[in-house]
Amino acid sequence: MAFKIIRNDIIKVKADVLVNSANAKPICAGYRTDAAIYEAAGFEEMLAVRQKIGDIEVGHAEVTPAFRLPAKYVIHTVGPKWIDGNSGEPEALRSCYRECLSKAVSLRAKSIAFPLISTGAFRFPKDLALDIVTEIAREFTSEHKLDVILVVYDNESFELTSDLSDFVEAYIDEHYVGATIDDRLKRYAAMNSPDEERWRWRRNRNLRIPDEEPLCNILAPTCEAPRKRETSDESAQKTKAVFTSFKGKLEEDLSKKIEGLEIQSFSQRLVYYITQKGLDSATVYNAAFMDRKHFSKILSDKIKTPKRETILALAVGMKLNVVETRDLLSHAGYSFTPDINLTDVIVAAFIEKNVYDLTRINIALFDNHQPQLG
Known about the structure:
alpha/beta, Leucine Aminopeptidase, subunit E, domain 1, 2 domains, 6-stranded mixed sheet, 6 strands
């Protein structure tokens, strides 16, 4: 299922389970997430059930009702305080996420929302914490039907690993030129005009267009240099014969090339790439953070035109290159324009780097205020 990052206050997020970055003692210590959850749930009610649980060890988690929160349950987990990185902090944080996700599965929850545990008062490095939550989320979402939502506050941002971050930034600088609104509208209007669609369809299938080849080259094999001076009538008749012959040959060649071809629907093109890559459906929809039912509707043409972000997620899931990604999008009526579309240039950067990790792509999109894929 899906892993998403959103900017919000966790007490406003609608999910079956909300996770509280709690104090080890059965008290409300006043930390941002802890205090907000107590207040929104009902301070006295939450404190009473928390006191019944008692102390919670670092890396462990316990469940309480959500009371007035927009959820069914709250899972309280105690994250590690950052010391030096060599005192078991990363593994303790992994344990927090694993315990919370395991309990959510036991509760038959369909969705769970996390804060970025331990990155506040406990000073756990934000980027390392992000790596850990994405690692654990990938493990669970590939095996369980559970949507995982990472909730961050408005002023929080992330960075990818330094080498990948530098590459993405450099790729954006090199390829993303941006454009004025008028420029973009003109370009999109031209790209989606009937004439452009017809010519693009032909180009995509490597068909020769007569106007693309100089007339002298076309006629050269057929025409010979005149050996004697001809009358205007004789010249006109020969020219007419040449063009008649050329027209017939051209129509025959085009009919042979077009014969057996048909304009594929998006679902047909999707199946083509799945087959070509030697993949199975489960591998594709899991890698694209998509549930089986939604994927089946796309394959069966019940959803004829999926959302653009969905198609890009499928392209990543199938490890398509840039040309193949553009082709897949075109079969749903979309274009792929890394020079003027920031989402496209970020996706293209990861494809060029051969990094087909949807979580990391979504982190980069999130940090650039672009819609996430999936």
